[in-house]
């Protein structure tokens, strides 16, 4: 077999570093009891072998670095990555969940549950659906604030949220679940 080129070796090395850092950050999330679907504001890194911009003519390394940092942000689900040489540990997560981050995380949780129901109902991606949710007033408010995002994510033409009664009618698939520990019912049908 061929020996990888120097640039391939660099990419392999960078990817190993991304995996290593992601593993540390995900362990920090687990220790803090924060699910990966819950976005966080920031991941601080003590150092990074791919943090420095290159002055080469093609800026290939800079593009690679930006891509690697984006990959790390996506893997760990953080909005920004910063570097701080003064950190005592290699990685530090900002575990403060603002109301905006909370709403985004709950939108992802609801979207995942609705996508599971789509699968259970045997719907195709192209099938437009109607979604109905009954939950607590707190979660109903959060879901209403992220309604357009959830609808776009799950292919719903209509999303109704209730905090006071059980929606009537036939549903192709439905589930009683917990949304952030709160009792929640979700039903879907073709639109």
The largest pleated sheet is described as: 4 strands, mixed
* Number of DSSP strand runs: 7
Please report the distance between the alpha carbons of the first and last residues. 55 Å
Order of helices and strands: HEHEEHEHHEEE
Beta-strand percentage range: 15-25%
How much helix, percentage-wise, in residues? 40-55%
Number of helices: 5
Query: Could you list the spans in which at least 5 consecutive residues all have pLDDT below 50?
Result: 51-62
Note the overall shape. Answer: elongated
Mean pLDDT: 88
Features:
191 residues, alpha/beta, 5 helices, 7 strands
Task: Give a short synopsis of this structure.
With 191 residues, this protein is α/β, with parallel strands linked by helices. 44% of the residues lie in helices and 23% in strands. Helix 1 runs parallel beside helix 2, helix 3 packs across helix 4 and helix 3 packs parallel to helix 5.
In words, what does this structure look like?
The chain is of the alpha/beta class and 191 residues long. Helix content is 44%, strand content 23%. The chain is built from 5 helices and 7 strands; from the N terminus they run αβαββαβααβββ. The chain has helices spanning 6-32, 60-76, 99-121, 137-145, 147-154, and strands at residues 40-45, 78-83, 91-93, 129-134, 156-162, 173-179, 182-190. The strands form 2 sheets. It has a 4-stranded mixed sheet, covered by helices on one side. It has a 3-stranded mixed sheet with strand order 2-1-3, covered by helices on one side. Helix 2 links the parallel strand 1 and strand 2 (78-83). It is elongated, with a radius of gyration of 21 Å. Mean pLDDT is 88; it is low at 51-62.
């Amino acid at each position: 077999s061929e020996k990888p080129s120097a640039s391939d070796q660099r990419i392999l090395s960078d990817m190993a570093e991304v995996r290593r850092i992601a593993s540390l950050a995900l362990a920090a999330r687990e220790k803090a009891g924060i699910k990966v679907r819950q976005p966080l504001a920031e991941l601080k890194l003590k150092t990074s072998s791919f943090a420095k911009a290159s002055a080469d003519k093609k800026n290939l390394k800079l593009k690679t670095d930006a891509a690697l940092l984006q990959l790390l942000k996506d893997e760990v689900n953080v909005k920004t990555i910063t570097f701080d040489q003064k950190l005592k540990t290699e990685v530090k997560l900002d575990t403060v969940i603002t109301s905006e981050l909370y709403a985004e995380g709950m939108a992802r949780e609801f979207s995942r549950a609705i996508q599971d129901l789509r699968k259970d109902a045997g719907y195709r991606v192209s099938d437009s659906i109607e979604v109905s949710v009954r939950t607590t007033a707190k979660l109903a408010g959060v879901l209403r604030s992220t309604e357009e995002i959830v609808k776009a994510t799950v292919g719903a033409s209509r999303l109704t949220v209730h905090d006071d009664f059980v929606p009537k009618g036939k549903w192709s698939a439905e589930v009683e679940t917990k949304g952030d520990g709160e009792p929640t019912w979700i039903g879907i049908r073709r639109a």
